[in-house]
Design goal:
With 378 residues, the chain is an all-beta fold. It has a single domain, classed as Methylamine Dehydrogenase, Chain H (7 Propeller). The protein is built from one helix and 34 strands. The chain has a four-stranded antiparallel β-sheet, with no helix packed on it. A four-stranded antiparallel β-sheet has the order 2-3-4-5, with no helix packed on it. The chain starts with 6 loop residues before the first helix and ends with a strand. The N terminus is likely disordered. InterPro entries: BamB (IPR017687), PQQ_b-propeller_rpt (IPR018391), PQQ_rpt_dom (IPR002372), Quinoprotein_ADH-like_sf (IPR011047), WD40/YVTN_repeat-like_dom_sf (IPR015943). Belongs to the BamB family.
Length: 378
Amino acid sequence: MSRYLVLGLTAALMVGCGSSGKKELPPAELEKFDAEVQLDRVWKRNIGVGQGELFNNLTPALDGLTLYAADAKGRVVALNREDGDEKWEVKLKAPLSGAVGAGGGLVIVGTLDGQVIALDETDGSEKWRAQASSEVLAPPQTNGDVVVVQTQDDKLVALDISSGERRWIYESSLPVLTVRGHSTPIVDVRQVFAGLASGKVVALAADTGIPLWEQRIAQPKGRSELERMVDIDGQLVLDDERLYVVSYQGNVAALDAQSGRPLWQHPASSYVGPGVGFGSVYVSEADGTVQALDAGSARELWSNESLARRQLTAPVAFSNYVAVGDFAGYLHLLAQTDGRMAGRVKVDGDGLRASPLVIGDLLFVYGNSGDLAAYKLK
């Protein structure tokens, strides 16, 4: 079997058969409810073919007033975040699998063959290309000094932001099977935080790559390699010196960002990152449950099981709600107080995989088919 297990196959295995060999239930039908809030679409733009056919998770990025997005065939666009007007567009001759990172004057993307491509934020002109060890499945990140890339073989590579030359590399042991994808590293002035396929989180010195601490979030269990998968995928969240992370078949945890000391852990299984807001941590579980935990104590505040098996995106806090997308292209708004369903809109018939993005009163949603839209609460 391939060393890397495609997430789509994993999801099919989980939905198709359980440990008892019995066929599992299909995705839950959407329940009718009295909407308390509506989403108005402010603008919509097409970004090409969207996520493509390889279960990519290409995610837009914001830097200032500009929103950057890319599709699987290599199209990269810069849009005005307020009205969606195009500032520039380039077509790279490379299939993209990790996008988009933005900052330090650059827009950065990764390819299926492990290339890292840096474009000028102002006009999309190419600044440099660098070669990583394997495909790049998460958006490269930068602190204005280095660009950090996490590759499918679980290596972290730091590149000079001006030239693309390698500064350092960090290697870790890769399990036999992994979910296809990686967590998106967090890169600040001093540290790099990354989640690994082994169920560990590491902190490295941003300038040298020297390990500062390592903490295990999930312990592999079970007899089969499938049962022992504990990947950390999706976005890590750094909030007020706390690092929030969730693993597949493991835990959601809060760590002290400086020391790596666990502040709390709570059982969870998710292949997308957590969301944080209103003093809570939100998790889209692999089985479709959305739960909210107290950010200080991990006490469960509420749980919503109405979206069972609908392959949810990572949740994001938006106004007084928690927004989450699903495989059928619906965007759901749950009340942050008790998790009740408060609103819903159909965004993309091909589904939603990328986590929604929030800035101010705007919610940006990138559909699998390539439609990128901005919404406001009505």
